[in-house]
Amino acid sequence: MSVRAHRARDDDTAGEVAADGDFLVIGLRNIDAERRGRDALAASEARFRLLAENASDVIVEFDGDQICRWISPSVEWILGWRPDELVGDTLVALAHPSEQVALLESWVRLCESRQPQEVQSRVRASDGTYRWVVGRTRPRLDNDGNVIGAFSSFTDIDDAVRASQEYAHAARHDSLTALPTVPACSTRSTAPWPATGAPVPPPLCS
Question: How far is CA 153 from the centre of its chain?
Fold first, then answer.
């Protein structure tokens, strides 16, 4: 509880009479609920930071201008960047040039729909190489429902993507010569050649 008191002259409208004839005006305000709210918010933020700092995914807090305001320490062992090297900048510049437009469009969709977005892209590491990640972003809304920022989690899927690419490449190329293979076609044309009337051989498949 918060207590505030001050002396007032005898023409004030409320209070207790002091010894000198003045009024002592006392105001009481219950701040227990307000304090509990602040304590709960602080505890929630502390739990979030504890979880984020120990998560294997990269956790990012963006403001309404898509500027990184906080990023978890896991970004250093996944991409090699220290958190302080990224805070204060937009992370779109780290995306592969061919995928930056898709990321910007995803942010527009998030602001318009106020719904979570998911995007798969390549992100530049500190050594200049690119790693595949999948990013999941949820909007932060104010009391009026306006987007004031977002929380994102980025999962490293580089090994899985490259393994899939290698498997697809192996399926289309000879293991000894590395030349593209020509799979058999399931259909063949029966239309005759104009000159001989013989059936047309099956077309080569790519």
Answer: 5
Single pTM value for the model: 0.60
* Residue spans of beta strands (DSSP E) within 130-189: 130-141, 147-156
Contact 103, 115 (CB under 8 A): no
Residue 76: which domain range? 56-163
In this predicted model, what pLDDT tens digit does every residue of 163-196 receive, in sequence order? Answer: 887 878 777 876 666 677 765 444 445 545 455 4
Q: Find all residues with CB under 8 Å of 141, minimum gap 6, and list them.
A: 114, 147, 148
Domain-embedded: residue 23: no
Per-residue three-class SS string for 67-120: CEEEECCHHHHHHCCCHHHHCCCCHHHHECHHHHHHHHHHHHHHHHHCCCEEEE
Element (H, E) at 48: helix 32-53
* Residue 95 to residue 20: CA distance in whole angstroms: 75
User: Does the pLDDT value for residue 22 go beyond 60?
Assistant: no
Domain of residue 81, CATH code: 3.30.450.20
Residue 16 and residue 24 in contact, taking contact as beta carbons nearer than 8 Å:
yes
Quote the CA–CA distance of 113 and 2 in Å, as a whole number: 43
